[in-house]
Amino acid sequence: MKRSAQRGRNILGGRIRDARLKRRIWMSQADLAARLTVRGVPFDRASVTRVENGERYLRDYEIRAFATVLRVSVAWLFRETGDPRPVRR
Length: 89
Prior knowledge:
Elements: H1 12-22, H2 29-38, H3 45-52, H4 60-70, H5 74-77
């Protein structure tokens, strides 16, 4: 997986950390990795750490999985909205 050469360019990491720790459901990095893996997106705790630190880029399907597991919208992860609630379909 490609790593970011320039720290701070990956804007999703901080939002993912905020959602994991401060949103409706608190979970550890290991819990988040396990929930992603169950959804068919294999992750381990170290990979979650790299994402949260902005050292690992995410693919589009991984972003959607993070949003689903964390119960936030993709738009919120990208700082396009202040409302973290996912859109109900």
